[in-house]
Amino acid sequence: MGAGKTTVGRTVARRLHYPFFDSDHELEAHCGVRIPVIFEVEGEAGFRDREAAMIRELAARQGIVLATGGGAVLRAENREVLKARGTVVYLRASPHDLWLRTRHDRNRPLLQTEDPKGKLEALYAERDPLYREVADFIIETGKPSVAQLANMVLMQLEMAGFPIDPPQPASTPAGESEPPAQDPNP
């Protein structure tokens, strides 16, 4: 949490001309309540069940950019779905950087403790090996801007053979007019 998955994911999606989805935001929209309320009512296990179902649903779509919640990798089924259905990018940040980015955010139930920095360090120790297990690429978030991080993601994808420039409609030579669009429902 706090690594920039949503912000960078949105930027990458825009550059690829793909729809963007954040599994946490989609889950909140589906349930009609914020994640802290789901945690409060159903506990972390209930939230993780809902999260896994949402990830399965979103990962079944073609041609999207998906940002998952930071704890999505805790479940083997999520790791398997993500690895099988897409290219996984791990935006890695140090626990200290994560703490600086999230310390004032009250919408993060796992950090509502006496020692949020210690909690982030424990979460990092548990999750980092899982992120590495599923990741096709690891991008260090450190100091780069969102645009620089998005460029790094796109460069990694391009080097792996991912088509970065979506096909553009054929242009009409100068001086010629395009034929009128056909009405699909005459």
UniProtKB/TrEMBL annotation:
Main location: cytoplasm
Protein name stated in the entry: Shikimate kinase
Family designation: Belongs to the shikimate kinase family.
Positions bound to ATP: G2, A3, G4, K5, T6, T7, R108
CDD domains membership: SK
Subcellular location: Cytoplasm
GO biological process, one term: aromatic amino acid family biosynthetic process
Task performed by this protein: Catalyzes the specific phosphorylation of the 3-hydroxyl group of shikimic acid using ATP as a cosubstrate.
Cofactor note: Binds 1 Mg(2+) ion per subunit.
EC number of this enzyme: 2.7.1.71
GO cellular component terms given for this protein: cytosol
Pathway it works in: Metabolic intermediate biosynthesis; chorismate biosynthesis; chorismate from D-erythrose 4-phosphate and phosphoenolpyruvate: step 5/7
Subunit relationships: Monomer.
Catalytic activity annotation: shikimate + ATP = 3-phosphoshikimate + ADP + H(+)
Binding, substrate: D24, R48, G70, R127
Pfam families assigned: SKI (PF01202)
SUPFAM superfamilies xrefs: P-loop containing nucleoside triphosphate hydrolases
Entry GO MF terms: ATP binding; magnesium ion binding; shikimate kinase activity
Organism of this sequence: Cupriavidus lacunae
InterPro entries reported in the protein's UniProt record: P-loop_NTPase, Shikimate/glucono_kinase, Shikimate_kinase/TSH1, Shikimate_kinase_CS
The keyword Translocase is annotated on this UniProt entry: no
Keywords assigned by UniProt, alphabetized: Amino-acid biosynthesis, Aromatic amino acid biosynthesis, ATP-binding, Cytoplasm, Kinase, Magnesium, Metal-binding, Nucleotide-binding, Transferase
Amino acids binding Mg(2+): T6
Chain segments carrying region Disordered: 163-186
